[in-house]
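Hey, I was hoping to borrow your eyes for a little while. I've dropped the whole record in just underneath, so have a look:

——
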Amino acid sequence: MDIGLAIQGIIVGLILAVPVGPLSLICIQRTLSSGRLHGLLSGFGITVADSVYAAIAFLGLAAISGFILSFEVPLRIFAGLVLIVVGVRIIGFVPDRRQEKTGQERYSTAFFSMLALALANPMTLVFLMVTLPGYGFVFGGTSLVSAGWFVSGFVAGSALWWVILCGTVGSLRARLTERNLTLINHASGIFIAGVGAVMILAPVLALAGFTGS
């Protein structure tokens, strides 16, 4: 049964990680501009954040989830602002293969920046709270042992995806010219900043519509 929970965790981890969104594009861009390890650590930061939400959803911690969701609007606005800043920086980034980005501080920044950004997205918690019972993945109760097996599988599934994605993208890095990288940066930066703007405008427009009716 515990092995079954781990397998279910792997499936849910993959389901959550595979769709390409703004955070995935940031990982791809970092892989292309700075190498596999930067992209991989960025992806692992997302994995850790999502795993925290997976544990909360699996254990059914209503008080904690309710507290997090009560700050959904300010968290979404914060995440939107960060995405806009990141998108603008990516647009203005000029690839230079002569400059190798190394150093422990830069690696840690790649990890913790994505950890914070992913934690600021409470929609991950909403997705998990709907997915777990809706698809019948979890049948192991709410004990800490069961949660440990499920979250371990979740981490494995999510991390596996980032290894595959960053490994594949990294293999293409050497074949891309600086011009190609610049075009990719512009396209991904515009998309990321656009998503950030939508994240900010959506609750504002919803509030305006509510007060105006």
About this structure: Confidence is low (pLDDT under 50) at residues 100-104. The first helix runs from residue 2 to 17.
